[in-house]
């Protein structure tokens, strides 16, 4: 595992801020919308299962999107998104728990809370259908264990997406009990994207695990490549949000959810 010192400064800053954030108080109890069922429904409808991400900005984005997050979320669902991801990290991504709550009330698809959770009390911030746990972050000193956070999240009704960056981390996630695993194509040392990351790491996952390819997916060709490598679904942010631009979010989403093998043929 890479230590904190080998993470990019931007990632170290995110992790430091996450250590300082407390919980939300009262214990959360969630009646979650099923993420695997949403993926199955998309497949049955002829759509590629895509989790479209609502994030105003990020350390790797060129600009900021200032549209109403609810309108963006509704546009993504109109474009065929099977689920949504909403940033609640405030310091680096412009997110908030209030935004997630508003989005979840406005749509009928599962909503992932995208944040950097290190301790159990940080689960008790807002109701979401799915929460994110990152293997690498939970290998750091002073965090709760992946196993403990998986258990605590499920006790509250959350589904859990466990994010990995390598085959070894996929194995670690599965060993801890994860049944939904994301492989992030963006490394944490240089923040560079390599779409070979997912195919390499995905081989470590048993067939029963739901696999999600994350980051760097910007074209129908990318979609096909990830799907052929075993991705059950894709998590896409910047290519749909178009930070610094004002393109049609519905069209951006549909372009990816409608991608098929024929898109790569000439």
Automatic annotation (TrEMBL):
Its EC number is 4.1.1.48. Pathway: Amino-acid biosynthesis; L-tryptophan biosynthesis; L-tryptophan from chorismate: step 4/5. It catalyses: 1-(2-carboxyphenylamino)-1-deoxy-D-ribulose 5-phosphate + H(+) = (1S,2R)-1-C-(indol-3-yl)glycerol 3-phosphate + CO2 + H2O. Keywords: Amino-acid biosynthesis, Aromatic amino acid biosynthesis, Decarboxylase, Lyase, Tryptophan biosynthesis. Residues 250-266 have a biased composition (Low complexity). Residues 246-266 are annotated as: Disordered. It is an enzyme of class 4 (lyase). One of its GO terms (molecular function) is indole-3-glycerol-phosphate synthase activity. PROSITE patterns: IGPS. Residues 27-255 form the Indole-3-glycerol phosphate synthase domain. InterPro entries: Aldolase_TIM, Indglycph_syn_Halo_TrpC, Indole-3-glycerol_P_synth, Indole-3-glycerol_P_synth_dom, Indole-3-GlycerolPSynthase_CS, RibuloseP-bd_barrel. One of its GO terms (biological process) is L-tryptophan biosynthetic process. Belongs to the TrpC family. This is Indole-3-glycerol phosphate synthase. It comes from Haloarcula salinisoli. The lineage of its organism: Archaea, Methanobacteriati, Methanobacteriota, Stenosarchaea group, Halobacteria.
